[in-house]
Design goal:
By secondary structure, the protein is an alpha+beta fold. It contains 15 helices and 19 strands. Helix 6 links the parallel strand 2 and strand 3. The model has no long low-confidence stretch (mean pLDDT 95). The chain binds uridine 5'-triphosphate.
Length: 408
């Protein structure tokens, strides 16, 4: 793309400022900038013009869950089934580690957070420990795929290598890099992070499967014979990964996906709830429900919309492959975005200053015909580290880790 072509592309969208330093750049950076502009998807900016309101939800109905009690009754059957699938290498694990964790505010990948106190215990290491429990029980390695972004791929892969894959078999660990999207100010101007570089951020965790396919890893999974993928977040230190009981229950249910859920801690808890929307499984955020729906109860007094998702899903690969070409909704999310100010100085804002564009793995659930809602015990399996202090922080996660006998 030439300078003129770039200008021609940007001007109608009011984005000519991206070329303001062009003349002073060395040739290599000029070429790089033009390449970024050529690849730029300006249609995303339309989403801001339309207003940042989310698409209204369809008709909601409760889905309930396979409760802890019900799971307990059939635990041995589920576990046996799950272990058999794992031993046959039918289950893979996908760690979503491409996010920037802006709420926590680390300048390194979140998985490099040391959750230990008297010893080094990194988030990545603890997640591998959790997976190792199953590997030992099944006496079989489970393929572990790690999604990074171009912002943290180098640090992440180096960290795994430095720590000898935290004791995992490195022949079963595969990294892949997700896509990026531009970040914009509240008035829709794309930010720059260097004079030759548009500000971009990872485009959400919803593209994980297509990024994995693009990286050639579907063939790899097929070689192993993998049929199910357990997708999980980087920051829930207590979660079980490739949990045989969950896997067995999902297979037994005949569903094409499953989600680990927890009962709400209180009626007003701000969690995404797994329910039915227009007859299909769906995750609906608390603010997308009316008070009446949110607080409705059955005849026994139980909340009907009671099960919050924990970002631990199991998907059948065949179904993922079939839906891959379908469009997913893009969410416009307010975030803190580092940017070049009018003096070309890089500013790291303390407060959100614009929007990022993200697709979300939770929207995949609505693309599935059915979903096993699988209840787990919150204090045993849900300790996400999202914030610096308070709720869902390092402090609260450490407390739960101690409670579960993990030495810090
Ligand atoms: P979060 O919703 O916590 O988002 O991600 P985040 O961007 O990492 O953190 P904040 O909101 O800026 O504080 C949930 C999971 O999805 C992954 C994260 O790494 C985390 O495991 N994720 C998120 C990606 O892999 N890619 C993304 O683009 C976004």
């Amino acid at each position: 793309m030439t300078y003129e072509e770039a200008l021609h592309k940007l001007a109608p969208a009011g984005q000519e400022h991206l070329l303001q330093y062009y003349e002073e750049l060395p040739q290599k950076q000029k070429d790089s900038l033009l390449g970024q502009i050529e690849a730029l998807d300006l249609s995303l900016l339309e989403l801001i013009k339309e207003g940042v309101a989310e698409v209204p939800k369809g008709k909601l109905e409760p889905l309930g869950a396979l409760t802890q009690e019900e799971i307990q009754e059939r635990k041995d059957i589920y576990e046996k089934k799950g272990l058999e699938a794992i031993q046959a290498c039918k289950v893979g694990a996908v760690l979503l580690a491409g996010g920037q964790g802006t709420r926590l505010g680390m300048d390194k990948p979140k998985g490099m957070l040391n959750v230990g106190i008297n010893r080094e215990l990194y988030l990545f290491g603890q997640l591998v420990n959790n997976l190792m429990e199953v590997v030992k029980k099944a006496d079989a390695w489970i393929p572990l795929l790690v999604m990074t972004s171009e912002k943290n791929n180098e640090d992440t892969t180096a960290f795994f290598a430095e720590h000898d894959y935290f004791g995992y078999n490195k022949d079963y660990v595969f990294f892949f890099v997700q896509e990026m999207a531009p970040s914009v100010s509240y008035d829709g101007k794309i930010y720059m992070e260097e004079k030759y570089k548009l500000s971009t951020s990872p485009n959400g965790n919803g593209g994980w499967f297509s990024s994995l396919v693009r990286a050639g890893l579907l063939e790899k999974l097929q070689e192993f014979g993998v049929e199910w993928l357990n997708v999980f977040s980087v920051d829930n230190v207590l979660q079980k990964i490739a949990d045989p009981v969950f896997v067995g229950a999902a297979i037994d249910s005949g569903c094409v996906c499953g989600s680990k859920v927890v009962a709400k801690a209180e009626q007003g808890e701000k969690v995404g709830v797994l329910c039915l929307e227009d007859g299909k499984p769906s995750i609906v955020e608390y603010y997308e429900m009316t008070d009446e729906i949110r607080n409705s109860r059955d005849e026994k007094g139980q909340l009907l919309y009671n099960y919050g998702v924990t970002l631990n899903y199991l998907f059948d690969i065949g179904t993922l492959t079939r839906i891959m070409g379908e469009n997913m909704p893009t969410h416009v999310v307010e975030k803190k975005i580092p940017y070049l100010n009018e003096h070309a100085q890089l500013i790291n804002p303390e407060e959100p200053n614009g929007y990022k564009f993200e697709t979300l793995v939770l929207d995949m659930i609505h693309m599935m015909d059915n979903c096993l809602s699988f209840e787990v015990e919150r204090r045993k399996e849900f300790a996400p580290i999202k914030n610096r202090t308070g709720v869902d922080s390092l402090e609260s996660a450490r407390e739960l880790m101690r409670e579960n006998g993990i030495a810090l």
